[in-house]
Amino acid sequence: MVMTDHVISNVLPRKNVLSRGAAGRRGKENAQPTRAQVIAANLDTVFVVCGLDRDFNLRRIERCLTLIYNCGLNPAVILTKADLHMHPEVFTREVETIAFGVPVHLVSAKDGLGLVQLEDYLSPGKTCTLIGSSGAGKSTLVNRLYGKSIQLTGSVSETVGKGTHTTTSRDLIIMPQGGMMIDNPGIREIAFWDGDGGMEHAFADIERLALECRFSDCSHMHEPGCRVQQALIEGEITKDRVENYHKMKREMMYLSDRQHKTANRVERERWKTVAAEIKAMKKRRGKERVKL
Ligand SMILES: Nc1nc2c(ncn2[C@@H]2O[C@H](COP(=O)(O)OP(=O)(O)OP(=O)(O)O)[C@@H](O)[C@H]2O)c(=O)[nH]1
Ligand SMILES: [Mg+2]
Ligand SMILES: [Zn+2]
């Protein structure tokens, strides 16, 4: 295939893929995605970029981490715009309470704070991608790490604190450090797509507590002897985190249920075709016998 003056000579096989439920469910309450949308492939690290302005949202970070774990990929969190605060480390600590073992980098594209830590992810042969909402500061980071302005950047609305969806395509950039970086458009919503394996990593604290519940099928809502509820009362975990856990668990169950149903339907349809072929074959044989 020829694209302007470039020729694609080889397409590398996909080692891994970051995908989410395809968008297009806006305005439809509880509507679920029906297709997977690939964000990027062959990744070593997926950066969740969050600006330390009105973009900062622990629940969204949790959601992004679940999506990344679901795809079997390695996350790292970048908290950018650190220059807006006197003590930005408090945000790092907050994120560390929900992201176990995930590197959290505090950076500022404005004054260069923490950028050296990111260089390691960009060594030759490595590929990373940036996800986050519009206006989080993804493209500004790419520009800073690249050393010049190669990606367009936009402003954030003062009234609603949101970006203007400046980046509109997925851009793979070969960085001067030797690695590759994929800049993405801002994500409006994160619909899950596949499996539920990500929950145990993203909510390791709750899953660990759940092992101590009295009933093995505890829903952690109202059962006696529920360790999760106890931890909530004792302030070990927050209400918001538990609510987000339940919400995502529901979505995951719905998804796996629906995918299971789809698989059943595929199987039924396959058997319908086989049965029709057998019937046609019998009919043909019958005719052949009559001829004899
Ligand atoms: N103070 C401060 N502002 C920043 C920093 N990084 C980015 N910004 C500002 O944040 C705004 C949005 O930056 P972008 O890099 O365009 O954001 P984006 O995440 O690429 O947004 P989309 O392309 O719309 O998804 C711009 O006005 C930047 O100047 C930072 O470290 N500090
Ligand atoms: Mg951008
Ligand atoms: Zn329980």
Based on Cα principal axes, name the global outline: flat
Provide the β-strand percentage band: 15-25%
Q: Which fold does the CATH topology of the largest domain refer to? A: Rossmann fold
What's the CATH architecture name of the largest domain?
3-Layer(aba) Sandwich
CATH class of the largest domain, named Alpha Beta
Q: What is the assigned CATH homologous superfamily of the largest domain?
A: P-loop containing nucleotide triphosphate hydrolases
Describe this structure in words.
The protein has eight helices and ten strands. It has 292 residues and is of the alpha/beta class. The chain folds into two domains: 17-183, Rossmann fold, CATH 3.40.50; 203-268, Probable gtpase engc, domain 3 (Ribonucleotide Reductase Protein R1, domain 1, Orthogonal Bundle). Strands 7-6-5-8-10-9 form a six-stranded mixed sheet, sandwiched between helices. A two-stranded antiparallel sheet has the order 1-2. The N and C termini lie far apart (56 Å). The site of magnesium ion has 5 residues, from helix 4.
